[in-house]
Amino acid sequence: MRYADLHVHTYYSDSTFSPEEVLSAAEEKALSAIAICDHDTTEGVAPCMKIGDEKGIEVISGVELTVEKPDAEIHILGYLIDWKLGWLQKKLKSIQDGRIDRVYKMLEKLKSENINIEPADVFGIAGKGSVGRLHLARAILKSGAAKSFREIFEKYIGFGRSCYVPNIKFEPKEAIEMVIEAGGVPVIAHPGIMQKDEYIRELAGYGLKGIEVYHTDHNNSTTRHYEELAKSLGLLIAGGSDCHGAGKGKALIGTVRVPYDLVEKLKEAADNSKSGAHPG
Ligand code: AMP
Ligand code: FE
Ligand code: FE
Ligand code: ZN
Q1: 223 Cα to the center of ligand 1, angstroms
Q2: Is 215 helix (H, G, I), strand (E, B) or coil?
Q3: Residue 280's pLDDT band (boundaries 50, 70, 90)?
Q4: Which bound ligand lies closest to the C-alpha atom of 188?
Q5: How buried is 137 (Cβ within 10 angstroms: 0-12 exposed, 13-18 middle, 19+ buried)?
Q6: For residue 275, is pLDDT > 70?
Q7: Which of 17, 56, 14 is nearest to 39 (CA)?
Q8: 202 Cβ contact list (under 8 Å, min separation 6)
Q9: Ligand 1, residues 38, 103, 134: which to mutate, most atoms within 8 A of Cβ?
Q10: Residues, CB within 5 angstroms of ligand 3 (ion)
Q11: Can you tell me the distance from the alpha carbon of 152 to that of 19, in angstroms, rounded to the nearest whole number?
Q12: Cα 178 to ligand 1 centre (Å)
């Protein structure tokens, strides 16, 4: 049986793993395929594909986009996008620039909680690519101002907490259309974290194609629930570990995986949407 982990980050967003480390870990877990889904960047896709080719591991292009509702943060995976498109890169760049401003704003808010972190500490941890809250959390941890990621997110930077700042405005419909226009398949990530199924129904109306049913943060009953929801809405089932390297403790790659035939279904969906976009 061949397996795929369809949610893997690299150090181009908030994983600690380089493409080499990602592919070595995938090889150790005997995965046939992985999808690289970094936050708002596709920079890791080509380097991972190159190493994947050498190792005989299929690397699927992807991205993880963040959209917000007043009461929820929604992550949308875009599988099989044509990451080379100029307009797509331009849009991703503007989102990444927004992430930089957001770090400064969150650092200001943290000051009023008596947590003083230099911007350079956060950007130093982030290195190349897309900066985010996990980098900020690591800088806070390093400063000794808090003892765990859990404490940091629950008290300060989790969605809606005192030092949380949203990303630049990006509507769910816009994100889904962007993935489809880039030839990809939009799938809602880890809906069990959000627990607002009404938004899945809304997104399905905009062209959402699947649900990430299997995920590290989904227990058995959550998984069964989203399996049923996917079936009832006629959506594809996806799944992956959401591995952040050592960024959240231990490397998770391969601990959540799906049979390879789900990859084939995603490819069919991408082909269908492409032929739909260009009739004849
Ligand atoms: P950002 O894209 O900058 O909004 O940051 C998102 C990152 O923060 C993702 O890797 C999430 O898994 C992580 N994250 C968000 N909320 C929490 C939380 N409550 N506990 C741990 N990690 C979280
Ligand atoms: Fe992340
Ligand atoms: Fe996510
Ligand atoms: Zn992720």
Answers
A1: 20
A2: strand
A3: very low
A4: 3
A5: buried
A6: yes
A7: 14
A8: 172
A9: 134
A10: 75, 189
A11: 28
A12: 23
Helices assigned H by DSSP within 84-171: 86-111, 119-126, 133-143, 149-152
User: Which residues sit opposite 8 in a β-bridge?
Assistant: 36, 243
Closest approach atom of ligand 1 to CA 14: 10
Q: Among all ligands shown, which has an atom nearest to the Cα of 106?
A: 1
Q: 193 C-alpha vs ligand 3 centroid, how far in Å?
A: 9
**Which two three-digit tokens encode residue 9?**
């980050």
Using an 8 Å Cβ cutoff, are 91 and 178 in contact? yes
In three-state secondary structure terms, 171 is coil
Q: Which ligand is nearest to the CA of 131?
A: 1
* 3-class SS shares of the chain: helix, strand, coil, % to 5: 45, 15, 35
Residue 66, ligand 1, Cβ within 6 A? yes
The amino acid present at 66, given as its one-letter code, is T
> Is residue 279 predicted with pLDDT exceeding 50?
no
**pLDDT, tens digit, 9 for 90 and up, residues 115-150:** 999 999 999 999 988 999 999 999 999 999 999 999
Q: Quick one: which H or E segment has residue 177? A: helix 172-181
Q: What six digits make up the tokens of 246?
A: 């050592």
Question: pLDDT tens across 158-175, in order?
Answer: 999 999 999 999 999 999
Neighbours of ion ligand 4 (CB under 5 A): 64, 242
